[in-house]
């Protein structure tokens, strides 16, 4: 077993102060104050081990993969394919060739919509998404439904930000081919009941794609236990680099899908008359991939995997509970998204205040939060709001961060009043 794989089998004690030391950026100041980074839903910070893996690759291993006979090419190919195996183990896929490297969640969903959709969607077929989807899990389905004259249906939600499962049941029918929903909502934090969604969809013969962008940073996912058909996530939200992501797909589904893009690596043989395609996973990986991205993602997974998932979940649940309690004490503040099962994401609005103004005043105090519609405009329309302020926590955040956020919010509101 190589070092990276071995790292996944050993656990380290969960000590937030020592974790913080692993993330160099957390030592910096912003606007003269220590950085309080609460924008992890947009992108997470990188531990030194990821930064070092990227640095090491470019200093020591850089080469193009798969077709080189020379030493460096073989080294880079091995590192890239080891990274695929690291991801496979992390999500418990049955085979490494069911793990495709993509540019990120958006690219993964577009791949399925374009490739599977073009081959299998017939006029009048139905694709089901939900009100809380990120634009990345709306627009690719709109595009392919337009092209194939298929129908896009939307699961309504309750005011709490939970899926209306009764309505979902009634949306499922003979023509439902695909159900594509977020595992965890980026704007609300809702953890969707994906086991039920998968079971109910399969009962109707529909496939399920889960957008796991906001899930994998917070909890372990087992694609085999879930029996999910496609699972998408991004490297950068799980402490890895930008520009790399994963699409997991079941072998038989991927085998029956046409290539997404044409070019190097996805071919077996090319003549001007006819091209035959490579086997999985290469069939879906045209062109020189983000080699260092894959290697950096594996380093990130190794980093996360050293901690007991339970310890990580408990820490984030504590932050969520503590922040919810403290924020609710601020007059005029309303939390958007009050589902029973939530990841450590809190969206809120404050009566009479625009989220941008609040976010700007927090930034002046060194606090990074996200403001706006969070790429979920239809969800904001549902709540009749322009956007929210969103604090999204990661393993390196602390109760002290929450205290500083709350104090800074109070100061911001004094300035705005
Ligand atoms: N889905 C969800 C739920 C997200 O939070 C995001 C990123 N905000 C995406 C999809 C898109 O991810 P990426 O930009 O990395 O492709």
Can you describe this structure?
The protein is α/β, with parallel strands linked by helices and 417 residues long. It has 2 domains: 3-30 and 308-416, Aspartate Aminotransferase, domain 1 (Alpha-Beta Complex), CATH 3.90.1150; 52-305, Type I PLP-dependent aspartate aminotransferase-like (Major domain) (Aspartate Aminotransferase, domain 2). The chain is built from 15 helices and 17 strands. The protein has a 7-stranded mixed β-sheet, with helices on both faces. A 4-stranded antiparallel β-sheet has the order 13-14-17-16, with helices on one face. A two-stranded antiparallel ribbon has the order 1-2. The longest helix has 21 residues, at 71-91. It is globular, with a radius of gyration of 22 Å. 4'-deoxy-4'-aminopyridoxal-5'-phosphate (PMP) is lined by residues 104-106, 134, 136-137, 182, 186, 211, 213-214, 234, 375. 4'-deoxy-4'-aminopyridoxal-5'-phosphate (PMP) binds next to helix 5.
SSE arrangement:
Blueprint: H1 3-7, H2 16-21, E1 29-30, E2 33-34, E3 36-37, H3 48-61, H4 71-91, E4 99-102, H5 105-120, E5 126-130, H6 139-148, E6 151-155, H7 165-171, E7 176-182, H8 194-203, E8 207-211, H9 223-226, E9 230-234, E10 245-249, H10 251-256, E11 267-270, E12 275-277, H11 291-305, H12 309-328, E13 333-336, E14 345-350, H13 355-363, E15 367-368, E16 370-372, H14 377-383, E17 388-392, H15 399-416
Parallel strand pairs: 3-15, 5-6, 5-7, 7-8, 8-9
Antiparallel strand pairs: 1-2, 4-10, 9-10, 11-12, 13-14, 14-17, 16-17
Helix pairs in contact: 3-11, 4-11, 5-6, 12-15, 13-15
The protein binds 4'-deoxy-4'-aminopyridoxal-5'-phosphate.
Residues 104-106, 134, 136-137, 182, 186, 211, 213-214, 234, 375 line the site of 4'-deoxy-4'-aminopyridoxal-5'-phosphate.
């Amino acid at each position: 077993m190589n070092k990276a794989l071995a790292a996944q089998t050993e656990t380290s004690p969960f000590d937030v102060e020592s974790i913080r030391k692993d993330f160099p950026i957390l030592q910096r100041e912003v606007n003269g104050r220590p950085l309080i980074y609460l924008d992890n839903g947009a992108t997470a910070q990188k531990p030194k081990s990821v930064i070092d893996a990227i640095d090491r690759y470019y200093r020591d291993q850089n080469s193009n993969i798969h077709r080189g006979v020379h030493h460096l090419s073989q080294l880079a190919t091995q590192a890239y394919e080891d990274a695929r195996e690291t991801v496979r183990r992390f999500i418990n896929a049955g085979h490494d060739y069911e793990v495709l490297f993509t540019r990120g969640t958006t690219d993964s969903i577009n791949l399925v919509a374009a490739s599977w959709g073009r081959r299998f969607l017939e006029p009048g077929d139905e694709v089901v998404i939900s009100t809380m989807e990120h634009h990345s899990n709306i627009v690719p389905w709109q595009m392919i439904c337009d092209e194939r004259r298929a129908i896009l249906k939307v699961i309504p939600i309750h005011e709490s930000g939970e899926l209306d499962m009764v309505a979902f049941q009634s949306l499922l029918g003979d023509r439902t081919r695909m159900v594509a929903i977020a595992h965890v909502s980026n704007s609300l934090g809702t953890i969707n009941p994906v086991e039920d969604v998968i079971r109910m969809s399969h009962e109707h013969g529909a496939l399920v794609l889960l957008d796991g962008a906001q899930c994998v940073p917070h909890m372990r996912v087992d694609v085999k236990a879930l029996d999910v058909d496609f699972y998408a996530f991004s490297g950068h939200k799980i402490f890895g680099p930008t520009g790399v992501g994963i699409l997991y797909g079941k072998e038989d589904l991927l085998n029956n899908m046409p290539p997404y893009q044409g070019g190097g690596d996805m071919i077996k043989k090319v003549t001007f008359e006819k091209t035959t395609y490579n086997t999985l996973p290469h069939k879906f990986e045209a062109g020189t991939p983000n080699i260092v991205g894959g290697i950096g993602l594996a380093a990130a997974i190794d980093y996360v995997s050293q901690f007991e998932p339970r310890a990580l979940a408990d820490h984030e649940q504590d932050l969520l509970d503590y922040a919810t309690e403290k924020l609710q004490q601020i007059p005029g503040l309303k939390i958007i998204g009050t589902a029973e099962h939530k990841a450590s994401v809190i969206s809120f609005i404050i009566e009479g205040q625009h989220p941008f103004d609040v976010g700007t005043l927090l930034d002046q105090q060194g606090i990074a939060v996200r403001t706006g519609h969070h790429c979920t405009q239809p969800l904001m329309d549902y709540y009749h709001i322009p956007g929210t302020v969103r604090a999204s926590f990661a393993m390196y955040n602390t109760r002290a961060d929450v205290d500083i956020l709350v104090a800074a919010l109070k100061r911001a509101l004094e300035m705005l009043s």
